[in-house]
Specification:
Elements lengths: L2 E5 L8 E5 L7 H13 L2 E8 L7 E2 L5 E2 L3 E7 L4 E7 L6 H17 L2 E12 L8 E5 L2 H7 L15 H8 L7 E9 L7 H15 L6 H15 L10 H4 L11
Parallel strand pairs: 2-7, 2-8, 8-10
Antiparallel strand pairs: 1-3, 3-6, 4-5, 6-7, 9-10
Amino acid sequence: MPWTFKTLKKIKSNKTILIEGLPGMGNVGKIAVDFIIDDLKAEKVYDVVSSKFPHCVFVNEDNLVELPTIAVYYKKLKDKNILLIAGDTQPLDETSCYEFCNEVLNLCKKNNCKEIITLGGVGLPREPAKPKVYLTGNNKEIIKRYNQAKRLNGLVGPIVGVSGLLVGLANNVKIPAINIMAETLGHPNYMGIRGAKEILYVLENKLNLGLNLKRLNREIKDLQDGLSQLEDIEGIIPENIKEEKEFDKSYLG
């Protein structure tokens, strides 16, 4: 199997909601899911093993190398169970992405998932002060349920990677799925904490996870303080994005 979910701890999970947040535009989804895992003290229950990971290693702060990883975490709440997919990479080609998403859906069936949520970013030429949140899904009912206040926006354009494909393929196993995306600076190395915060507000409002979002406010302030010390923040913005007068939604994820 190209993708294997290695069991670290057996769980019995019903009424399960799966939330995916792998690296993508502005790393918005990754930041949001990593925050949930840390804040809820979710437990790692699956390691993903694959020869389809990028052929590289990461060098950490201790000058040691680490292989790319994807893992699944679990948290039991009062009236629901949460599975969270997190990692520092995602499938890099079309075939691998389909294979990975189908294995995720097998995991969902095994753990009686009633709903799938994927998270991502919408790239802009500049980081917005108040990022908009966009919704799309594989059926109208789940979109309506998440947008009861009608304050969220529709999304037009292809969604690249796991956050889009997983929602589409979930139709094949009859699991309602929704994609939640927030605006962020359109740069792959940018840390879109503001966008992640807006997504977390939506999740907290709908799922009552019990998150301490004040912690994220402090992290946003720390990030702003760091950015203010840079001599040229424009240096992280690609030239082709700087020159655009209109936002092109053709690359999302």
